[in-house]
């Protein structure tokens, strides 16, 4: 978090608010993922995991192969893949992993996306998340169950859209729906002018060869009839607003949805009600 605070302070104290230096700092603001230390109980869980390193090509920033760290618990026939959110890491699913480990039929996988947790990379983006997922598909096949939180929920959908193969069950927990609006909120928080934001988005679209309007879950998710999908969200979430999620759900009525209150965007992964619902959905779905 220290580096992110430095980026924010540098932007706020920049004399020329429309300079090239500002644009460089905005790229860091949007694409730098803050690192949160592993907690004691999480480290214990990692110590019990099998470590598997994989490589992902970063064609956008470093122009190199990045090592991503993957972790596996169990050797059962049912494979489960967990995709973490922005500024997070695979072991932040610790409560869900501990729950799933009680079933000896499960083989549970998590990973640290590029630029997150213990994996290589200075900055990251949605596409590097999706590329990491596809590398895991190559390594273990399409898992039976995929669980994604926040940006990880959007990344799961993007990877599945690209490969056109699907798990039996998909669980999205507080997924991001409109990435452009998240970017705008971050830039507004540091008083970035509309002109500077337009310049950033122009450069962003050139780099990724896509309109930022396409970074919306409604556009990415086009396979609702291909699998059983549970979406869980917090009706008061400030990071992934319920209004966006509910618009998405209206377009995809086949999705089973549950809303909770006062879990917060991150603590929703540890809420006992959420854990119970995830467990029940998996039991019934399999």
From TrEMBL:
Record-annotated AB hydrolase-1 domain positions: 80-224
Pfam families found in the cross-reference section: Abhydrolase_1
Record protein name field: AB hydrolase-1 domain-containing protein
Originating species: Pedobacter steynii
